[in-house]
Specification:
Helices cover about 25% and strands about 20% of the residues. With about 240 residues, it is α/β, with parallel strands linked by helices. The chain has one domain: Maf protein (Alpha-Beta Complex), CATH 3.90.950.
Length: about 240
């Protein structure tokens, strides 16, 4: 088993308690550089010339994340999508790296029993760490608002773990990547508008850095831009190459 861990600015212990917040439930109705976020979107990563060595090997993305699907397409891959239906709240850890690895592995375990063809299966999970606390998808309006408010004083670190499983050899490789997002102070009216869209309730840490309402308040990103979106492409490429052999 290979582990690729991109250096990040986790605390020395690497441990963080999960944030608990109350309030009304939402009703639907390492560092490779410092990147300044401007009006122009991030350029897509280069496409792989020969993504999979074996034409008989199927590629499956075990995620319904539209961002992950778009990023995998820009890498040059053709793939199918499966939804790992697991109870994420039943898997707990105070260590964000271990939490994301456990969740990504659990997603792989849930999907493997449904796959009969020779395949490479990609599963992933992301959490945000801010002020020493782990942020997952918010469950309440108050929790989402607290997330956004906290980014005014401390950067948000995205901790993303990727697991690639070869169903033919049963080889499983994984890695974790860290990116740090520095936000400007987000006005209350923008926070309210974001919450009204419902989008924060589908995102760990309540944010999508490409959301048009939020993007003007992203000051800079340390690390890989795509990692902050949920699929670190360099790590993913290395894992896919390793899992094929």
């Amino acid at each position: 088993m290979l582990i690729f861990l991109t250096p990040g600015a986790l605390s020395s212990s690497g441990r963080a308690p999960r944030l608990q917040r109350g309030g009304d439930r939402f009703d639907p109705g390492r560092v490779q550089g410092v990147r300044k976020i401007g009006s122009q979107p991030e350029a897509d990563p280069p496409r792989a010339e020969n993504p999979l060595g074996s034409k008989n090997m199927r590629l499956i993305l075990g995620s319904q994340s539209s961002a992950r699907q778009r990023l995998l397409k820009t890498m040059g891959y053709s793939f199918s999508v499966m939804n790992p239906d697991i109870d994420e709240k039943s898997i707990r850890s105070d260590d964000p790296k271990q939490l994301t690895l456990q969740l990504a592995n659990a997603k792989a375990d849930a999907l493997l029993q449904k796959i009969s063809e020779p395949s490479l299966l990609i599963t992933a999970d992301l959490v945000v760490v801010c002020n020493g606390q782990i942020y997952e998808k918010p469950e309440t309006v108050d929790e989402a608002r607290e997330h956004f408010k906290s980014y005014a004083t401390s950067p948000a670190q995205t901790i993303t773990s990727i697991v690639v499983t070869n169903t033919t050899t049963n080889q499983r490789v994984h890695g974790t990547d860290v990116a740090t997002i520095f936000f400007k102070s987000i006005p209350n009216e923008i926070i309210d508008a974001l919450i009204a869209t419902g989008d924060p309730f589908t995102q760990a840490g309540s944010f999508n850095i490409e959301h048009p309402l939020l993007k003007p308040y992203v000051d800079r990103i340390e690390g890989e831009y795509q990692s902050a979106m949920g699929l670190p492409v360099k790590l993913t490429q290395r894992l896919l190459e390793t899992a094929q052999h």
